[in-house]
Amino acid sequence: MYEMIYRISTPRWDDGAIPPQVAQLACQPGKTRRAIDLGCGTGTHSVYLAQRGFTVTGVDSSSTAIQKARQKAAEAGVRADFVVQDVTRLDGLAGPFDIALDIGCLHGLSPENRRHCVEQLARLMPPGGTVLIWGGERSFGFGWRPGEVEKTFAAGFRLLRSEASQLHGRRANWYWLKHL
Predict the structure, then answer these.
(1) Lower Cβ count inside 10 Å, N or C end of the chain?
(2) What superfamily does domain 2-9+20-179 belong to in CATH?
């Protein structure tokens, strides 16, 4: 479905805006300043982080989105690694990543696939690494239910805080987690 969306249009979520939470995340110190952008789409947030000195790996299942992300990075004059891959199978990637960013990717996955992704993040992130998630509230068959982020990330991560928000016309939340 996402492949077709990226081929025929510009999705409504691909508006080029950088949420203040992502800007705040970019200011966090880290030993390696490496970030992984899960479901990176056309790379807006990956490019933003690269412009701020991060070594970034953007992951998306859409080859069209990845092609556009590579073009966006080239036009911005930054280097980022973009890979076509399922976020639940990150075996070919090597960490450590200080930061994992998910803006609207995991909330569309099944609970089982979310757990697979969390297992991959636990392997790829050092203790103290930060995960920032934006996810819509449960509606139309996808999204996060209250308490679901904490439960999904319970093995190896701790929820630091959450903030209610609205993005792209949806009720949503930002979740800040720390890898233990």
Answers:
(1) N
(2) Vaccinia Virus protein VP39 (3.40.50.150)
